[in-house]
Design brief:
Shape: globular
CATH superfamily of the largest domain: SGNH hydrolase
CATH topology of the largest domain: Rossmann fold
Keywords: Signal
GO molecular function: hydrolase activity, acting on ester bonds
Protein name: Hydrolase
Low-confidence stretches: 1-25
Pfam family, one: Lipase_GDSL_3
Strand content: 15-25%
Mean pLDDT: 93
Organism: Deminuibacter soli
Order of helices and strands: HEEHEEHEEEEEEEEHHEHEHEHEHH
């Protein structure tokens, strides 16, 4: 209670400071939406968007199921890099609606997360104070002590909500510059489910795709759609237009229901997705991922475990068939390689921070080996 009262007082003062910033006497605000170059990392499209922080271009909206299009407004995997000499950073923004889910923290769903990278490449997390009590969400980072020379700050955006606007503020006496997105780098593009979107990391920076991006120093495009990562042709076709360093198809957690997706249908969707990507990109690595929860070490619920193992068995046989057909640079990441234990998930399906770290580590090991060749 005392902490909440204290944060309310601090953040009320911060809001007043932000208002002063607009008059040029307190904090100066920087709006990524009016930058003259792309500044939102973690996505492929920077123009032709229905809303500034969308993950998919508006031109594809009519070909998508409504839930997929709605989820594409969520800013999962997106981040803003910037430089500043300030020791206090103030972030304020508004989301279209505050997402409340039983398996997500408020910070993960609706919050932001700030990191610092030094010139040697090491990343540091920065603790902040926050307030979600009003329409405008506030995060305040004070007394930032640099570990040495700083290369950049990285602000991760909410995993399960859609920012309407966002400002980054620093004291008027300090410098600030957005870091342009390096559009020359070929990203790793991932198509997946709620797990990829970020459920159930405790905060945005601990979603496994965000951890992987820091570990590999490569851009990651997070196309995770909660409950709706189903290897659908419109999404796969759009992914095929991206010049990537690797493609990852991690959709089995949304294909395990045998009443909706028979063995034949799961096989068909995997085969078609691989064929579409390979047709467009003959030499780009494609990774197929098992359902990480299909291990006996995770849960004693035999019914769910059997469902997860079913789709893994289908994936394994489909992968073997594709390799025999002559597909090259096709890789399988198994549940055993991901290595979940009974401490890895919050509910037998969605990884907590321990599970997210296991995901990131497994992908890092595989991708480093793949991308060396």
């Amino acid at each position: 209670m005392l902490r909440n009262w204290y944060l309310s007082c601090v953040l009320a003062a911060m809001a007043a400071g932000s208002a002063l910033a607009q008059t040029g006497t307190g904090f100066k605000l920087y709006n990524p939406a009016i930058a003259t170059f792309p500044v939102v990392g973690g996505r492929e499209w920077h123009t032709g968007l229905a809303s500034f922080f969308d993950r998919l271009p508006q031109r594809i909206s009519d070909s998508l199921r409504r839930p997929v299009w709605d989820l594409s407004h969520n800013s999962a995997g997106e981040y803003i890099d910037f430089t500043t000499d300030a020791t206090t950073i103030d972030v304020s923004y508004k989301v279209t609606h505050k997402t409340i889910l039983a398996n997500l923290t408020t910070i993960a769903a609706n919050g932001v997360d700030l990191y610092l990278q030094d010139v040697s490449g090491v990343w540091y997390w920065i603790q902040g104070a926050w307030a979600f009590s009003s329409d405008t969400i506030h995060f305040r980072y004070d007394h930032i002590q640099r570990p040495g020379a700083v290369k950049r700050f990285r602000l991760y955006l909410p995993l399960y909500s859609s920012p309407e606007w966002l400002n980054i503020g620093v004291p008027s006496v300090n410098s600030f510059s957005f870091v342009p997105v390096d559009i020359r780098q070929r990203p790793i593009v991932i198509y997946g489910t709620s797990i990829l979107q970020g459920a159930s990391a405790s905060r945005p920076g601990l979603a496994w795709s965000n951890m992987l991006g820091r570990h590999l120093s490569l851009p990651i495009i997070n196309l995770g759609f909660s409950g709706n990562g189903q290897l659908e042709v419109p999404v796969t076709g759009l992914i095929a237009t991206i010049e990537a360093s690797a493609y990852i198809l991690d959709c089995l957690p949304n294909l395990y229901d045998a009443e909706k997706f028979s063995d034949t249908e799961v096989n068909r969707r995997i085969t078609l997705a691989v064929a579409m990507l390979r047709r467009a990109h003959p030499a780009t690595p494609i990774v197929l991922t098992e359902h990480a929860d299909g291990l006996s070490s995770i849960t004693l619920d035999s019914t769910y475990r059997a469902k997860y193992k079913r789709v893994n068995t289908i994936l394994d046989s489909t992968f073997t068939a594709l390799v025999r057909q002559g597909y090259k640079r096709l890789y399988l990441l198994t549940a055993k390689q991901i290595g979940f234990t009974d401490n890895s998930t919050i509910d037998g399906t969605h990884p907590g921070d321990i599970g997210m770290a296991a995901y990131a580590k497994a992908y890092e090991k595989l991708l480093k080996a793949i991308l060396r060749h």
